[in-house]
Amino acid sequence: MIIHFVCRGNAFRSIIAEAYLNSLGIKDWNTLSSGTAAAWDRANNLPYYRLTLDLLGKHGIRRFAKGHHGEQLTQERLENADIIVCMNQRVHDEVLQGATFPVHLRIWSVADIGEPGRIPASDAERERFREEAYQEIVGNVDQLVSGIHAAGFMHPLALGE
Q: What is the CATH topology of the domain spanning 2-156?
């Protein structure tokens, strides 16, 4: 099964989801991540990607992260996945501007740093928001995995949604 996580820059949220799911070591599951605006923001997002790697290191899962960031979402990437997870409605809406969803789709509500609900007023608040987002993503991945396992079948159609 291939699960594809999509955010905007492929430097924070989708990287966390991909690394965390990889860390679970589920046999025959593969993960991908990309971003709706990743190609345009790649250079500017490098410092954020490094902060994401630091956050993953703090949680002991850095080694499960891919070694690069900024992969642009493409229709081909969408078509190669069994389940696609958009990090929030904004990401979903951006995908629809240039692609279609050919498979099972999930839309989470994980706000990025700088989006409403996570606009930091200080560096300390920015770090708190990063940790909150990490915990939210981990919880969502755990629910996704649990739902698929509870269905007793390793295919997204078994989810009954």
A: Rossmann fold (3.40.50)
On whether the CB atoms of residues 15 and 69 are closer than 8 A, the answer is yes
For 100-118, letters b (16+ CB in 10 Å) and e give ebeebbbbbebbbbeeeeb
- Residue located via tokens 């940790």: 131
- Each residue's pLDDT tens digit, 17-37: 999 999 999 999 999 999 999
Domain boundaries, the chain: 2-156
Kind and range of the H or E run holding 139: helix 123-150
3-class state of residue 30 by DSSP: strand
Question: pLDDT tens digits for 50-103?
Answer: 999 999 999 999 999 999 999 999 999 999 999 999 999 999 999 999 898 887
